[in-house]
Amino acid sequence: MTEPTTEPTPDQDQTADQTEQAEAFEPITSQEELNRRIGQRLERERSKFADYDDLKAKASRLDEIEDANKTEVQKAAERAERAEAEAQQVPAKVAAALRQHLVQLHEIDDESAELFLTADDPERLLKQVQALVARSKEGPRAPRPNAAQGGSDIPPQGDWLRQQLART
């Protein structure tokens, strides 16, 4: 069988400590006594962080060493990123210059160029220009005849009323 414990629980310990403190409480009556009590408290807190400045200096020194070691690698990585970014912009730059040249060469008006020449890839831009120039050379198209407008003896499909009137 288990025996009951006679030791107080943490809650009971705190209550006992508070009771002792309440009984032992002495009001502070002078500035010197207040300074002494606060000074003791401040010293305890300061002792916790006594090595903070030393650790801070060591951490900054470590950061400097890591930066010195990384700089060559980082510089190379940054150069590679810039080169890749420039390489990705080359087709767009070529397409912009090509667009200006083709608009002048084929005498395409600005509105049509803005509307139809939208590609950023030079190959696609050339295809767009070829299609636009081919359509403009065809000239205007003649309208297609509409069977529903007449001119034919056969009534259009789906015109129920005309079919009914034609029967009578």
Q: What does this entry look like structurally?
A:
This protein is mainly α. Helix content is 71%, strand content 0%. It has six helices and no strands. It has helices at 10-24, 31-48, 52-105, 110-116, 122-138, 160-167. Helix 3 (52-105) runs parallel beside helix 5 (122-138). The model has no long low-confidence stretch (mean pLDDT 79).
Key terms:
168 residues, mainly alpha, 6 helices, 0% strand
Give a quick rundown of the structure:
The protein has about 170 residues and is mostly helical. It has helices spanning about 10-25, 30-50, 50-105, 110-115, 120-140, 160-165. The longest helix has about 55 residues, at about 50-105.
Number of distinct helices: 6
| Range of helix content | over 70%
Taking the alpha carbons of the first and last residues, their distance comes to 114 Å
Question: Globular, elongated, flat, extended or rod-shaped: what is the shape?
Answer: elongated
Supply Rg: 46 Å
DSSP strand content: under 5%
SSE blueprint:
Blueprint: H1 10-24, H2 31-48, H3 52-105, H4 110-116, H5 122-138, H6 160-167
